Amino acid sequence: MNMLKLSVMMFITIIMLFTLNVNAQDSKSKSTPEEKAKKYTDKIQPVLSLSEEQYTKMYDLNLQQINWKKESKTSNLSKTAKKIKREEFKASEYSILSAEQMVKYKEYLKNHHKSWFHKIFGIF
């Protein structure tokens, strides 16, 4: 009898965890590109000490990049075309940020954009 109760409790727990995971994914995907761009720009603003003009330009660039990534998933662009577009975005970042801010930004990216392996297992 105890084994049956334990099995039922484990089954209910698994179902609840699965439901929570699905709900978390749904809420994450509901954010608009504008919300994602604002969230990311807000996140880097204190790190880089962006001026109002830089903030606006970085927000616009982030929004363009988010929209482009969304569109590129459905199109069949070559790797070369994608690389060229990424380089264009990087050049735009260089034109917006000062040399000192670019150093800080590269360090921020290095520390905050870790591989999926690291995110899952917490090593390397």
Any chance you could write out the topology, listing elements then pairs?
Elements: H1 2-29, H2 33-48, H3 52-74, H4 79-96, H5 99-112, H6 116-121
Helix pairs in contact: 2-3, 3-4
Q: How many domains is the backbone divided into?
A: 1
Beta-strand residue fraction: under 5%
Q: Can you tell me the overall shape? A: elongated
Structural class: mainly alpha
Tell me, rounded to a whole number, the average pLDDT.
Answer: 81
The total of helices stands at 6
What value does the Rg take, in angstroms? Answer: 21 Å
Give the low-confidence spans: none
Major beta-sheet overview:
none
Percentage of residues in helical conformation: over 70%
- The number of distinct β-strands equals 0
SSE pattern:
HHHHHH
Oligomer: single chain
Could you describe the 3D structure shown?
With 124 residues, the protein is mainly alpha-helical. The chain has one domain. The chain has helices spanning 2-29, 33-48, 52-74, 79-96, 99-112, 116-121. The longest helix is centred in the N-terminal third of the chain and has 28 residues, at 2-29. The model has no long low-confidence stretch (mean pLDDT 81).
Main traits of this protein?
124 residues, elongated, mainly alpha
